[in-house]
């Protein structure tokens, strides 16, 4: 992988992406290259460049100097491309099997060139289609445990850890999360977006001081707890998968934050999909939540015992304390994710595609109840089985 700092930024076009791939000699000389811009996310351009004869392909991802979902009125740092490249490289040190290969990056052009994963499907879309993705949670549990443990103070020298924290200072993207996940949905803010029928439920959230106190504490953790290199946006739209393989993409929100944030976003997005389904089809998602946590605990504990560098990792009870704090925080962060995906700026197709409209509204009301309950009951929900029972109880009320 080579990294470059070219002098001028300009957004690529499809022909520009082909010219770049040729200049970098990423394909055979004289190959006939085709290119489509396929980005459907909120922020970036994504070009797929393919050799028409061999069918070999690559992805050229380029950050725009603004948030694509809103337009040029929302300027956004290009530095997120550097963060994404370096996060992918760092994660590949521990779990190369779960991240795309990076071939090239250019900080000034804000591009990352990587493996094309279109043999797989975005897991949100697959889950909406009713696919089970049976290995998804086993892989994600291992991804979480290894990327988070091996970038934390439990595993790395404190000087090196501080240099990593510095490398991954990501204020603009963190600010998006601070606003869109932790702040705006809990106040009458103009970024919020919800159906008029949810007005009363939303008003109840805005008036709920006990809920807001807990959200304030979670936001404070997100702002200050530099525990490990978190992915920072680990929803099911950031995961490619099929029945055998899983790849985590898009770590442009990566920074040193609370381990429970990544775990909670995974829980929250599995739950959003669960409640979008009829009750008889929800089981697989609860199993995914349980498996994610159980594999996370197993792999994190193994790494702690074998590779713990911090002297206190040898003290009885410390691992259990850390794990229970991660779980508690994950429950709260999951609640915030569920609420913001229901009434905030960035929605999810799991809820927005529910038909008919009346059913969509009642499931969104349920989402708001579940989200609020998780946030207010973080301390009483002690493990994945209780988590499942708690949610099922709320679903059946
Ligand atoms: C303006 S960005 C909106 C959302 O898209 C990203 O994927 C993050 O989830 C962010 O909150
Ligand atoms: Mg993304």
Describe, in plain words, how this protein is organized in 3D.
The protein is α+β, with helices and mostly antiparallel strands and 397 residues long. The protein is 50% helix and 14% strand. α9 (259-276) runs antiparallel to α10 (283-307) and α11 (318-343) packs antiparallel against α13. The longest helix has 26 residues, at 318-343. Residues 42-43, 67, 69, 176-177, 180, 233, 346 line the site of 5-S-methyl-5-thio-alpha-D-ribofuranose. Its EC number is 2.7.1.100. Belongs to the methylthioribose kinase family. Keywords: Amino-acid biosynthesis, ATP-binding, Kinase, Methionine biosynthesis, Nucleotide-binding, Transferase. Pathway: Amino-acid biosynthesis; L-methionine biosynthesis via salvage pathway; S-methyl-5-thio-alpha-D-ribose 1-phosphate from S-methyl-5'-thioadenosine (hydrolase route): step 2/2.
């Amino acid at each position: 992988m080579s990294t470059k700092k070219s002098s001028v930024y300009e957004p690529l076009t499809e022909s520009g992406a082909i010219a770049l791939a040729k200049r970098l000699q990423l394909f055979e000389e004289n190959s006939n290259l085709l290119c489509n811009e396929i980005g459907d996310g909120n922020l970036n351009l994504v070009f797929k460049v393919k050799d028409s004869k061999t069918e070999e392909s690559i992805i050229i991802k380029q950050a725009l100097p603004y948030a694509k979902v809103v337009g040029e009125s929302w300027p956004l740092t290009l530095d997120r491309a550097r963060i994404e490249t370096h996060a992918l490289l760092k994660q590949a040190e521990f779990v190369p099997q779960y991240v795309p290969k990076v071939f090239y990056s250019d900080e000034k052009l804000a591009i990352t060139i990587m493996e094309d994963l279109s043999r797989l499907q975005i897991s949100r879309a697959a889950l909406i289609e009713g696919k089970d993705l049976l290995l998804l949670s086993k892989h994600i549990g291992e991804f979480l445990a290894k990327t988070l443990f091996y970038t934390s103070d439990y595993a790395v020298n404190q000087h090196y850890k501080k240099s990593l924290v510095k490398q991954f200072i990501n204020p603009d993207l963190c600010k998006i999360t601070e606003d869109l996940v932790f702040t705006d949905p809990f106040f009458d803010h103009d970024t919020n977006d919800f159906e008029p029928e949810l007005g009363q439920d939303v008003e109840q959230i805005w008036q709920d001081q006990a809920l807001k106190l807990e959200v304030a504490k979670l936001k404070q953790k997100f702002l200050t707890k530099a525990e490990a290199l978190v992915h920072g946006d680990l929803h099911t739209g950031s995961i490619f998968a099929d029945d055998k393989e899983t790849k985590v993409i898009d770590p442009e929100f990566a920074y040193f934050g609370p381990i429970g944030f990544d775990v909670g976003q995974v829980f929250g997005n599995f739950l959003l999909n669960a409640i979008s389904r009829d009750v008889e089809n929800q089981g697989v998602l609860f199993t995914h939540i349980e498996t994610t946590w159980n594999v996370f605990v197993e792999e994190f504990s193994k790494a702690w015992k074998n590779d713990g560098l911090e002297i206190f990792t040898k003290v009885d009870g410390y691992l259990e304390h850390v794990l229970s704090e991660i779980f508690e925080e994950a429950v709260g962060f999951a609640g915030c994710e569920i609420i913001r995906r229901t009434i905030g700026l960035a929605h999810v197709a799991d809820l927005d595609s529910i038909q008919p409209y009346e059913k969509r509204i009642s499931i969104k009301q349920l989402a708001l109840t579940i989200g609020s309950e998780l946030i207010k009951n973080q301390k009483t929900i002690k493990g994945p089985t209780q988590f499942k029972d708690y949610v099922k109880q709320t679903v059946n009320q």
